[in-house]
Specification:
Helices cover 37% and strands 19% of the residues. With 329 residues, the chain is an alpha+beta fold. Strands 1, 4, 5, 6, 7, 8, 9, 10, 11 and 12 form a ten-stranded antiparallel sheet that branches. The relative contact order is 0.12.
């Protein structure tokens, strides 16, 4: 019953808009508390930092939500270990639960719960197996990074997990679902759905975002907890900032007039934090501005563990705008 309740909560939280699950935040916090206890227990047993395990779990949970070739999460932990890796590539039984036979065939599955079985459906077994795999590379973050690369064989996946780790480490909590509209409501602004519209400058392409029109200098706010992945000039987006959140989503803020003081790559930001101001930069070499009315180009991109693609941010902006208006009342 507990597994079904957890699965339902995860499905609601990530597959429906925030407004639809506003009443579920207390339950989500309780689930995060249970996850934290499990992560901390594994840190004691394997010496892998609990916040790094939490970061990997966040990464994998969101990968599973964005892909159809992976089974949906049913338990507390989002980490998924492929059957051939769990039981061993030469094992005749992909769902093997005998720890001795798994070891014989070179699998990584282990008994973490102490029941004598290495069950890929058991949260403790999965997390202990994953943490034990990383621990064989030695203690310390640099050695763990090597383990992560060997496990995922993809630089981007390792980078995202380390970014999540930094966010969780700074916040010291897993309750990081807060959101903010990207401009303060007290200013004049306007926007409509523009994702997918045709664009001509620099070649035929589609508009991968929503334009929020406002005056020069209107503050631009981070919409979520995240880490600054990019800051600088882009010939299309002008002065721009890219922030990756805990759900593997990349938030792109383009055409800025300037950046917030002390904003830098690798910095952790929170919802509502000023990161820059509205401008009209872009469509040329560094410093080009004024080729269009001032506005913020806001884009969202999802990483699924293999590739990254853009999706329409407009529905999320409408939700966050309503949430911020409700907070003001």
């Amino acid at each position: 019953m507990f597994r079904l309740a957890v699965a339902a909560m995860i499905f609601l939280t990530f597959c429906f808009p925030p407004a639809a699950v506003a009443s579920q935040t207390d339950e989500e916090a309780q689930i995060n508390t249970q996850r934290t206890l499990l992560f901390k227990d594994m840190e004691k047993r394997t010496h892998i930092p609990w916040k790094l395990l939490a970061a990997a779990d966040e990464f994998e949970r969101n990968v599973r939500l964005s892909r159809r070739d992976l089974p949906k999460q049913t338990g507390l932990i989002g980490i998924y270990i492929q059957p051939e890796r769990w039981s061993g590539p030469l094992s005749p039984a992909p769902s093997e639960t005998d720890p001795a036979r798994i070891q014989l065939f070179g699998g990584i599955g282990k008994d973490g719960s102490g029941d004598g079985k290495a069950d890929p459906a058991n949260d403790e077994d999965v997390l202990y197996s994953y943490a034990s795999f990383l621990s064989q590379y030695g203690r310390g973050l640099e050695n763990t990074k090597i383990g992560l690369w060997d496990y995922y064989q993809r630089d981007k996946s390792v980078s995202l997990i380390l970014g999540h780790f930094k966010i969780i480490d700074r916040a010291n909590t897993l309750n990081l679902s807060g959101r903010s509209f990207p401009v303060p409501l007290r200013y004049n602004y306007s926007y409509k759905s523009t994702w997918g519209d045709a664009r001509g400058w620099g070649g035929r392409r589609i508009h991968e975002g929503t334009d929020l029109f406002a005056d020069y200098g209107v503050p631009v706010l981070a919409t979520s907890y995240g880490i600054v992945e990019m800051k600088g000039w882009n010939r299309y987006g002008g002065w721009r900032v890219g922030i990756r959140d805990i759900r593997n989503t990349y938030h792109y803020y383009g055409h800025l007039n300037g950046f917030a003081k002390n904003l830098r790559e690798g910095m952790v930001v929170k919802p509502g934090q000023v990161i820059g101001s509205v401008g009209s930069s872009g469509y040329g070499p560094p410093g080009t501005a004024g080729k269009f009315p001032p506005h913020l180009h806001y884009g969202m991109y999802k990483d699924n563990g293999r590739t990254e693609w853009s999706f329409d941010p407009y529905p999320y902006l409408r939700i966050w705008e309503r949430m911020d208006k409700k907070k003001k009342k």
